[in-house]
Amino acid sequence: MEDGRTLGACLAAVAVEREVECRTLKRYWQKVSGRPADEWLAALLPAYKGREPDEVDPRVLNRFFADYGRVEQPQAQACYERVRKAAAAGGWGPVPSLKTLQRRFNDLPAAQKVYLREGNEALDALYPHQERDRSGMRALDGLNMDSRIWDLRVQLPDARILRPVVTVVQDEASNAILAWEVTETESGQSYRRVMCRAFEHYGLPDQVRFDNTRAAANKATTGGTTGRFRFTLRPDELPGLLPCLGVNVSFTRPRNGRAKLIERAFAELKERSEKDPACAGAYTGRSPTEKPANYSEKAVPLATFVEVLTKAVEHYNTRADRRSTVAYQTSHLAVFEKSLKTRAVRKLTAEQRRLFFYSAKRVTPKADGTVFLGTMPRPHRYFHAALQDYAYRHPGEPIVVRYDENDFSAAIVAETVEGRRITGDVERIEAGAFNSVEAAKHHARARREANRATKHAARQYARMDEIEAGIIAAAVEASPVPASPPEASVIQITPNRRARSADAPAFPKRDPAKLAAARAALGQQDPEPLNTDGPDYRRLALGREKLGLSKAG
C-alpha cells in the first residue's frame, strides 16, 4: 500500500504469494486495522465463544428427563414427541430441539445417567469392587459352597434327560476345591453330603459361607444362626448341624455374586466341562437366546459327564501357572496342602458323622417311654427304657430325636434340648396285625420278661442295704487287735497348755519354816543344797530349756 496500490490489490498479491484465501486476509486486516503494530498478534488470537445455552422451561426438561430416564430405555424421538404434546397442552412455551434436550441429559454425571437408564445393579457395578486381602488366612479358616445348574443335556441311567446340578465346596484361603457332587436338583441333603466328605477328609473348618437359598440356609444345617436373610429365628429353634459341630456360619448378601469366591471357580469348571469334545452336541447355551446351532443334538451319558467333570476339577486344582494373589506361579492345591500343615485340625468323629445323614425333630416322650415320628395316619413309634426314665424325672419336657428320613426302621438317637445324649439306640416298635394271636403272645411275653427283670432288679436294690450292713459289721468284728502295740522309736512330749479357770483354787505357797518343823517331827534331815555346777543340774537345765520351761518353774 505504500507504493500507492489499493487494499484489494495488496490482499490479492499476498494471497497468491502465501496461498491463502483473500477473504481470510481481509478478515485478519479488519482485526488489526487502526491498532499499533505491537498489538497485532494479540488482536489476531481467536476469541471464539460457544453458543449460549438456550433458556428451556424447567417443566419441559423435567418431563423429558422423567420419560427418557427410565430402565425401559425408550427412544429419544418418542420421548420428544410426548414432551411436545404435553407442552402444547399445558402452555409451557416453545420446546427446543431434540438435540438440545439430549445434550442437557448428557450433561448429567455418568453415575446418574447409568442409574436412570440401566437401574440399580448397573450402578453397583459402576462402583469399584472391594479388594479383600487373604494373606493372613490359613487353610480351613473358611469354606464357601454353592450349587450351579450345568448347561448340558445329561442322560441318566433310567433314560431321563436333564441338566444336572453340581454342588462344590471351596477353601477360601487357597481357592482349592475340596469336594463336589452331581445331583438332579439342589437340596439340603446334597449340601450335607458334600460337606461331610470335605470335613471327613480334611477336617472341620472354622467357618462356612452360604448364600440364602432354601437348600443351603435350611434350619437342619444352620438352625439357631442369625443373618440368614431367610426364615424366622425362633427362640425354641433347634441348633443346626454346623452349630452342633462348633462351626460358625456366615451368609452372603442376596443377589451379590461377587461376594462368593466360588463363582469364579464355576466359570472355569463350566468352560472346561460343558464344551469338552466328549460333550459335543449336548451344550444348551447359557440362555434360550444363546442356543448353539447343534442344540439338542444329543445327550451325554451321566458316567461320561462325571468323568469329564472330574478331569476339570483336577485341572483346576493342579494348574501351576496361576497368577492370582493367593496362588502365584503355583497351584491352588499346593497352596492348600502347604497351609494345612501349619494349623491344628479338628477331625470329624463317628458320632459327628452321623449328624450329616440324620434329621432332627423336637418331640415330648410319653410316660411309657415312647415317641412318635412321621406323619398321620401311620406314624412310627419308638421305645427305650432311658426315655421312660427321662419322662419320669422330667415330665412334659421335650427332647430332640435324630433319625434317618429314608429309613424309619433304623434306630434313632435321643438327646436333650441342650445337646446331651440320652441314648443312641431307640428301636422302633413294629405294629402287629389286629387279629394276630402270635403278635399278642409275643407282646405279652416281652412285657412279662421286662416286668420280671424290673422286679428282680428292684429286690436286689432293696436287699443291698442289708447285705452291705452285714459285710461292714462282719469286717468290724473280724478286725484283729494286736497283743502288744509296737513301741515308737521317737516320742514327742505334749506340754499341758490348758488355761487355769478363774474360779480354780490357787496352789498354796511353800513355807520353809513349816517344812523344816515337819521334817524334824518326822526325824528327817533337810536335803542337801543343789549343786548347780554338777553334771546332773546341767542335764536338767538343758532338758527344761528344750521343753521351753523357765528355770524358775
Strand segment tally: 14
Strand order of the largest sheet: 9-12-13-14-11-10
Classified in CATH, the superfamily of the domain at 143-340 is Ribonuclease H-like superfamily/Ribonuclease H
Average pLDDT, all residues: 83
Please tally the helical runs, counting DSSP H or I stretches of 4 or more residues: 19
Give a quick set of tags describing it:
single chain, 553 residues, alpha+beta, Arc Repressor Mutant, subunit A, Nucleotidyltransferase, domain 5, 6-stranded antiparallel β-sheet, 5-stranded mixed β-sheet, 19 helices, 12% strand
List the helices and strands and how they pair.
Blueprint: H1 7-18, H2 22-32, H3 40-44, H4 58-68, H5 76-90, H6 98-106, H7 110-118, H8 120-126, E1 143-149, E2 154-155, E3 161-162, E4 165-171, E5 177-183, H9 188-202, E6 207-210, H10 219-222, H11 241-244, E7 248-251, H12 262-274, E8 300-301, H13 302-318, H14 332-340, H15 350-354, E9 359-363, E10 370-373, E11 380-383, H16 385-393, E12 399-403, E13 412-415, E14 421-428, H17 437-477, H18 512-521, H19 535-546
Parallel strand pairs: 1-6, 2-8, 6-7
Antiparallel strand pairs: 1-4, 2-3, 4-5, 9-12, 10-11, 11-14, 12-13, 13-14
Helix pairs in contact: 4-5, 7-8, 12-13
